[in-house]
């Protein structure tokens, strides 16, 4: 079973592809900043290293926390999007379980308890304790350092994670503990283990949820009722074939059951490799993909191939921003006019394009087919 493991929850951005005991690819980029920008290129690098298409994956596993609010959301958003596009299950694995699992595998001496501990800053630690046989003694918790030292299991134990030294010092100072040792494994979750832990679990029936424990410093409002000033900033950046899987997922979410034919990951990758193609990806709230526009230019003419926004985030100006930036990019490349086709039943899109200066110049009867087999006309528009 080929599984993709993803982690961006702590201080690394990492991706692995495993097939049973075989590691087909493992790519790790150190540092906890810019994971939203780094993850898709790393995913493509891992895919090439493994020599497979994403469509060959049987499932995806991503860390769900505890850890960085932004980092948790980055991995989960990507995993969910790919799972939706590929119609494969997505597992959520905690960072503490992954760290503890790594420490247990690396410990030569049997019979030791294991404590996964992550520095949460502000003199606090994320902590989860495991018995000598590897069973979790409690759920992950957020505690101040002194309280964390007070819940350590009795007897010798191995500490693993970025908060290990802080906890060891506190335990020695407050309780005189001299039976603790530091694990030599990485303080960041191993994406190979993330995937392998998932492989040993039943197929999930629901998408995983983030395990934040600590509320985010800046709470993100819901799309409904959010004001222009309260919504998190929208970031629009060009993307290449490495983002094909995410674009396919967004397109499927936006158009499943509607008239527009769905773009697959493979077809998007092929199109993006063609001269003149341009994709702009909109992200929000720590790098979560929420929409994209796909355009193509030939000589002085440009074409909008598709524009997709997550349904729950429509009517918030995302499509308008994507359209504005996309048209500006095409104009900057020398395009004098731009064409597009839109289903005659897509009233909202037709209104958006009309407001941007597009006018109807033709019609293709029965061009689109909807999920029920019904035919819909395509309206040809030009600007």
UniProtKB/TrEMBL annotation:
Gene Ontology biological-process entries: tRNA threonylcarbamoyladenosine modification
PROSITE patterns xrefs: GNAT
Residue ranges occupied by any N-acetyltransferase domain in the UniProt entry: 234-383
Pfam families named among the record's database cross-references: Acetyltransf_1, TsaD
UniProt entry tagged with the keyword Cytoplasm: yes
InterPro entries, alphabetized: AcTrfase_RimI/Ard1, Acyl_CoA_acyltransferase, ATPase_NBD, Gcp-like_dom, GNAT_dom, T6A_TsaB, YpeA/RimI_acetyltransf
UniProt keyword list: Acyltransferase, Cytoplasm, Transferase
GO molecular function: N-acetyltransferase activity
Protein name according to UniProt: tRNA (Adenosine(37)-N6)-threonylcarbamoyltransferase complex dimerization subunit type 1 TsaB
Species assigned in the record: Ferrovibrio terrae
